[in-house]
Amino acid sequence: MENIDKLDTFSEFLNTIDEWNLNSSTEEILRQKDIEIASLKVNVAGLQAQLDVLMQYEASEKIVSTAVIWQHLWI
User: What pTM did the predictor assign?
Assistant: First the structure.
């Protein structure tokens, strides 16, 4: 294997572990982040819908346990 081939192989390996996108263009990074943001917005909207459904079952007034009432009376 020639040195150029070895360097190409090593360069490909480095690209697979590039955590900070050093070899990506700014436009590519921004596109990836836009896709990630859009996905997260969809996820948040779904979670908000689930929360809204669950909040229908929330008591409008809090129920106080009689044990707590008795505890306060004895203090």
Answer: 0.51
Residues 39, 70: Cα–Cα separation, whole Å: 51
Measured at the CA of 21, the angle between CA 18 and CA 23, to 5 degrees, comes to 90
Residue type, 3: N
pLDDT in tens, 31-74: 999 999 999 999 999 999 999 998 888 777 666 666 666 666 66
| Of 42, 40, 17, 18, nearest in space to 29 by CA | 18
Tokens of 56: 């229908």
Q: Terminus-to-terminus CA distance in the chain, angstroms?
A: 85
